[in-house]
Design goal:
Length: 441
């Protein structure tokens, strides 16, 4: 079977009776086009599975009943049944009897969301006279043993996937589980939350498809969060790198790791709205819209500054510092370095005293919590110096301090850390002023 496109549907797209009927219509329209369909768990189910892992043994039955009620309500509304789903309920109940849910067993528990979802959808398609075939992505994608956010082995995945679909006869509609894979030790692994996007692009690269489509509940990629910025608009074209920046700095676009497989194979990704399927959406590829820009933000940021005279002329100082960060499993977002100090940001964590204890021996430590990070992603930053001035003026007008400024090496990302007390007003002000400026160019 020569696959032409990968279509991935997220949790909200398969989370209700009405949304599944829309998905069914999309698949019916494309039934003869050799497309592969990747599905997430129904919205809310993965959170319930996480809750099973985090709660006491005597509370798990209640959570499983909630999962069964939600899934059964959908199946009843669609007038379908599935013996496979019933068997998966039993398997989940058995696994949940383990007192200690280890990190590898946790991935096994989380896998039930996609496995239930795809079995349900397979039955829905069959009930509507479509030749659907359930495919467990653990047969295709192999990873390391980093359970919870495993790294895939592309060579083995390519071999598995290529062989599987080469041997698959024409006429089937493949229904593939997103998010899950098989580790090198043979256990179930997961690709990280949002990993169904990555499943789609990994398979897209392996099968050398013409396009990967990500179906969600928004009109493509937005220039800002429409819940925060009232003038936010849908972008028509955005580059791989710009999307990566947007995903990493607070933009609710798609799982950032999922961009690379498509980028390396130069496969366009189309982000479409299941609930507005006629809308053209956003194309992620080589090019972006002229004077493109987007504004993202996130709160609850910690700013750490280390000052030490030992930094000056000392070989390996920064290496030692980042080794400490690595040992603390601390993911750093922004970095600003001077001769005698370095400032970094990270998402706030509960125990900052551990960080202080680890770092006090190498310099004076200053921590500022509850800060906000604002990022302006644009292909005009390097060529439009007044954009930086405009952003700073917008912050000044809100009487917000600027604690850190970072301009990425690519010139696509201008990020600032501020103490802004009204983040929503601030980002609206920045967005509107940048929009006016770029429209004049």
């Amino acid at each position: 079977m020569k696959v032409n496109k990968i279509l991935k549907f997220g949790g909200t797209s398969v989370g209700s009776i009405d949304s599944l009927k829309v998905v069914l219509d999309i698949i019916k329209t494309n039934k003869s086009k050799n497309y592969v369909y990747v599905f997430s768990a129904q919205s809310g189910i993965t959170n319930l599975l996480v809750e099973i892992c985090n709660t006491r043994l005597n509370k798990r039955d209640e959570i499983i009943r909630t999962i069964k009620h939600k899934i059964n309500s959908i199946m009843n509304g669609l007038e379908i049944s599935s013996l496979n789903v019933t068997e998966l309920y039993k398997e989940l109940e058995e696994i949940s009897l383990n007192e200690d849910i280890t990190i590898d067993l946790r991935d096994e528990v989380l896998s039930f969301g996609e496995r239930i979802s795809c079995n349900l959808i397979t039955e829905l398609l069959i009930a509507n006279n479509l030749n659907a075939l359930f495919i467990d992505s653990r047969e295709l994608i192999e990873t390391n043993n980093n359970f919870g956010s495993a790294e895939y082995n592309f060579d083995k995945t390519y071999q598995n996937t290529s062989q599987y679909f080469t041997n698959l006869a024409e006429g089937y509609i493949p229904v593939v589980t997103g998010f899950i894979a098989k580790s090198e030790s043979g256990k179930t692994s997961t690709l990280g939350r949002g990993g169904s996007d990555l499943t789609a692009t990994i398979l897209g690269r392996a099968l050398e498809v013409a396009e990967v489509q990500i179906w969600t509940d928004a009109d493509g990629i937005m220039s800002a969060d429409p819940k925060k910025v009232k003038n936010a608009k849908s972008l028509k074209n955005i580059s791989y790198l710009e999307t990566y920046e947007l995903s990493n700095f607070g933009g609710k676009v798609m799982y950032s790791k999922s961009i690379y497989p498509a980028q390396i194979a130069q496969i366009p990704i189309k982000v479409l709205n299941t609930f507005n399927k006629e809308y053209e959406g956003t194309t992620i590829g080589v090019n972006s819209d002229k004077n493109f820009f987007a504004v993202t933000s996130k709160g609850n940021i910690t700013l750490l500054t280390i000052t030490s005279s030992f930094m000056i002329g000392t070989v390996g100082y920064l290496s030692n510092l980042f080794t400490i960060f690595s040992n603390l499993n601390l993911s750093i977002d922004l970095v600003s370095v001077s001769e005698a100090s370095i400032s970094v940001t990270f998402d706030s964590i509960l125990d900052l005293e551990i960080i202080k204890t680890q770092l006090e021996s190498i310099g004076s430590i200053r921590l500022k919590t509850n800060m906000s990070q604002i990022a302006i992603i644009s292909n005009t930053i390097n060529t439009t110096p007044q954009l930086i001035t405009t952003v700073i003026e917008a912050l000044n007008s809100e009487q917000s301090s600027i604690e850190l400024i970072s301009l990425s090496n690519s010139g696509l990302n201008l990020s600032l850390v501020t103490n802004s007390e009204n983040l929503e007003t601030t980002i609206n002000n920045i967005y509107n002023k940048v929009d006016v400026l770029l429209k004049q160019l």
